[in-house]
Amino acid sequence: MQRMIEFIVGLLFGLGLLISGMTDPGKVLGFLDLAGTWDPSLAFVMGGGVMVGLLGFGLAKKKTTSFSGQAFQWPDMTQIDRPLVLGSLMFGAGWGLAGFCPGPALVAMASGNDKALVFVLAMLAGMALFGRFKKRDN
Amino acid sequence: MQIDWIHFTPWSSLMGGILLGIAAGALFLNSGRILGITGILEGLLTPKSDDSSWRLVFLLGMFASPLAAKFLLPAELLHAPRIDANWAMVIAAGLLVGFGTRWGAGCTSGHGICGLSRLSVRSLVATLSFMGTGFVTVFVVRHWL
What we know:
The structure holds 2 protein chains of 2 kinds.
Chain A: H1 2-20, H2 25-32, E1 37-38, H3 41-61, H4 82-98, H5 102-110, H6 114-137
Helix pairs in contact in A: 5-6
Chain B: E1 2-3, H1 10-31, H2 37-45, H3 53-72, H4 87-103, H5 108-117, H6 121-144
């Protein structure tokens, strides 16, 4: 039952990305291009998502356990540190370069787009590379 | 500033955003997990015992969405991907996104939607950071080079 719910949530999330326009890099870059003709659509995606998210997480704050009985895994990190900022800056540079962030790239790949497939493979390589970088650092 | 009225889709983008918020809220309320694609992938790259199955079924749901959309949604609501980047840019972008999202511990879903919904200052800083370099990169690529 839990697995079924998680599958449906993944499906809804993918549909949300498709409807919102996030899976179209042209639309993402249209939003990031403030100096060109600007497409404000993505602000509406973020606004809609956060508006509903505030309700969901607000409700969770009042509860002690999730519906499945599993404990809520609230993120425990609150510090603003170098990895957070440098990593996010790096992510944004890649996002602006091709117009893909991780979720939409996965959905575009599943819709059969060849460039999205190559992007996802490079992204997984980048994630694996970070694992080695972190190990060496410790 | 000039608005691109031709491509501007306030309603479908708002509806899509609301679906993303419903999914994020539902996953947390039901399973107690943050809907962050970076974290979900990271958990599969470094698997811990019996923590992989929810990640896999969630991803399967995502992978099924383009097919479901064909049956459920009117064609005019869907955007075919328009990709200007050449192959070298696509690979460079993928590497930057993969490395950067793990380094910064999140992307547009985990920091952007879930983090802002939790009113996390840390996620706000991350979101402003990646949006900042996103704006700068597009400016450089489209208007400088």
